[in-house]
Design brief:
Elements lengths: L1 H14 L6 H5 L3 H38 L19 E8 L2 H12 L6 E4 L12 E8 L2 H12 L6 E4 L22 E8 L2 H13 L4 E5 L12 E8 L2 H12 L6 E4 L6
Antiparallel strand pairs: 1-3, 1-4, 2-3, 5-7, 5-8, 6-7
Length: 266
C-alpha cells in the first residue's frame, strides 16, 4: 500500500498532474514524502533520458527524410503522333507510298530530318490523298526559309508551305525507310566493271551533296544485262522527280541521264 501511495505521489510531484498545497503535503507521512521525492527524482531523470533519446530519433528520421529522393509520381507516357502544325520544305508529292518513303530515306542520308505526310491529314494541304515529303517540320516560316537554299541545291523546285491544323485520326508521320528492291528512276552518272571505282565515284557524289549509290546492273530488269556497277545520284519514284535534279547534276557530270531501273531480279 505504501508503495502505491509513494508511486502516485511521485507521479503527481513529477508531472504536476495535481497541485498540492503545503497543508495537503504536510498531511502525508514524512517517510512517504521522502520515498516519493526520491522516486520522483529518479522518474524525472528517466523521463529526461527518454526525452533525449526520442529527440535523437526524431532528428535522425528528419535527416533521413531530407536525404531521401522524392518519389516520382507515376504518369502515363505521352505519345507524340506529330500532330502539331508546321512549315514544311516540300520536295515531292506522289501517290506511291513506297516511293515517297524512299525519297525521304535518301534525304536522311544527307542529314535532313525528312518525313512523309499524308495530305488529307492536314487542313492546308491537298484534299486529295498524296504522300508528300518534307526535309523537316519547322516551327516557324523563318526556320523553313533558312533550310530552303540547301534543299534547292538538290531539289530545285522545293518550296515552303504551312501544313495547317491536323485533321486526321491517327499517326501521321511516316518514318523513312530504305528503298529495298523497289523499282526507281536513277540519275546515272557513271558505269564501270570495277566495283571499287564505282564506290569511289559514289563517295565523290556524296561529298557534293548527292545521295550517291551503286547498283549492279544484272540485278535489275531494265539495266545492262552484262554485269556493271553503275552509279546514280539518288533514287526516285517517278521520272519527273528524277528530272528535277538532273540539270544540277549535269553541271558536274555533263553526260548524266535519267533511266528507269525496272524490277528487281537479283
Amino acid at each position: 500500500m505504501k508503495k502505491l501511495i509513494c508511486g502516485t505521489l511521485a507521479a503527481v510531484l513529477c508531472v504536476g498532474l495535481l497541485p498540492l498545497s503545503p497543508h495537503a503535503l504536510a498531511a502525508v507521512p514524512r517517510g512517504v514524502q521522502d520515498t516519493a521525492a526520491q522516486v520522483a527524482q529518479e522518474s524525472l531523470a528517466c523521463f529526461r533520458r527518454a526525452g533525449g533519446l526520442l529527440e535523437a530519433v526524431i532528428r535522425t528520421a528528419q535527416s533521413a527524410s531530407a536525404e531521401e529522393p522524392a518519389q516520382e509520381t507515376e504518369t502515363t507516357p505521352q505519345t507524340d503522333w506529330g500532330i502539331q502544325p508546321f512549315y514544311g520544305v516540300w520536295v515531292t508529292g506522289t501517290t506511291d507510298y513506297t516511293g515517297a518513303r524512299a525519297i525521304a530515306y535518301n534525304l536522311t542520308r544527307q542529314g535532313y530530318d525528312a518525313r512523309v505526310y499524308l495530305t488529307t491529314d492536314w487542313e492546308n494541304l491537298n484534299p486529295r490523298p498524296w504522300y508528300v515529303v518534307t526535309t523537316g517540320a519547322y516551327a516557324t516560316e523563318a526556320e523553313a526559309k533558312a533550310a530552303l537554299p540547301g534543299v534547292r541545291a538538290i531539289y530545285a523546285d522545293a518550296y515552303i508551305k504551312y501544313s495547317g491544323a491536323y485533321i486526321g485520326d491517327g499517326p501521321t508521320v511516316q518514318e523513312p525507310e530504305p528503298p529495298v528492291q523497289a523499282p526507281f528512276y536513277g540519275v546515272w552518272v557513271a558505269g564501270t566493271q570495277d566495283e571499287a571505282e564505282a564506290q569511289r565515284q559514289a563517295e565523290e557524289l556524296k561529298s557534293r551533296g548527292y545521295d550517291g549509290q551503286v547498283f549492279v546492273t544484272t540485278e535489275w530488269s531494265n539495266l545492262n544485262r552484262q554485269k556493271w556497277y553503275v552509279v546514280t545520284a539518288g533514287v526516285y519514284p517517278t521520272e519527273a522527280t528524277a528530272r528535277t535534279i538532273l540539270s544540277t547534276v549535269q553541271t558536274i557530270y555533263p553526260d548524266a541521264y535519267v533511266k528507269y531501273s525496272g524490277t528487281w531480279q537479283g
